[in-house]
Design goal:
There is one protein chain. By secondary structure, the chain is an all-alpha fold. It has one domain: Glycerol uptake facilitator protein (Up-down Bundle). Helices cover 69% and strands 0% of the residues. It contains 9 helices and no strands. Helix 1 runs antiparallel to helix 2 and helix 5 runs antiparallel to helix 6. It is globular, with a radius of gyration of 17 Å. 50% of the residues are buried. It holds the Pfam family MIP.
Length: 232
């Protein structure tokens, strides 16, 4: 179990550091930085790397919503669920700590601002200015689809060797659609790390990025367990 937890720590670190790091270091401005498309693929590519790198050890959930979906689908023992979630949160916090240490060494660094380190959010002060309803709907629906894809491509009978690629490209696609809406969470751990450092609005809005993704992941797991989205 300790080996699985360490894999989840490392895998979640990869996801959060590369994804959020692309957003805050490489930049969202398409003229001088990689733009929203680049950030989207940074998240997607990072999960592909983690899936192939540590997937054989822990399944590379890297996400409490995925673990909850796997639990309700009968894929994850109940006794391992809490350990996975703690490992994922730890990996996200460590990634944000390293990211902050790097950013603090930049000339002219003036401290963490609102929604720092790629924190998720919503409302008039956040990116596209979408409201709470938009944020809840987007995060719930996208997490449901994301976890449904994960359970589908990792089930018995699915094409062998392509799961990591399918999962990563799905995450990239979700980001292409939704960065302007919420910054895209679909993962409570990914949201927890940056919000813990940013504080303020990011921390007060964190409940959205815990509740909606967990609800979406739970529905995906329930439907899979019922055979509705399962091949056999």
């Amino acid at each position: 179990m300790s080996k699985k937890c360490m894999a989840e720590v490392i895998g979640t670190f990869i996801l959060v550091f590369f994804g959020c790091g692309a957003a805050v270091i490489a930049g969202a401005d398409g003229t001088t930085g990689i733009g929203l498309t680049g950030i989207s693929f940074a998240f997607g590519l990072s999960i592909i790397a983690a899936a192939y790198g540590i997937g054989a050890i822990s399944g590379a959930h890297l996400n409490p919503a995925v673990s909850l979906g796997a639990l309700l689908a009968g894929r994850l023992p109940a006794g391992e669920f809490a350990a996975y979630v703690i490992a994922q949160l730890t990996g996200a916090v460590l990634a944000c700590l390293v990211l902050w240490l790097i950013l603090s060494g930049q000339q002219g660094y003036s401290g963490l601002g609102a929604y720092a380190l790629g924190a998720n959010g919503y409302g008039p002060a956040y990116l596209g200015g979408y409201n709470l309803t938009s944020a809840l709907v987007f995060e719930f629906v996208m997490t449901f689809l994301f976890v449904t894809v994960i359970l589908g491509v990792t089930q018995s009978g699915a094409p062998v060797g392509f799961a990591g690629l399918a999962i990563g490209l799905t995450l990239a696609g979700i980001h292409l659609v939704g960065i302007k809406v919420t910054g895209v969470s679909v993962n409570p751990a990914r949201s927890f790390g940056p919000a813990l450092f940013a504080g303020g609005a990011a921390l007060s809005q964190l409940w959205v990025f815990i509740l909606a993704p967990l609800a979406g992941g739970a529905l995906a797991g329930i439907l899979h367990a019922a055979g509705i989205t399962r091949a056999e």
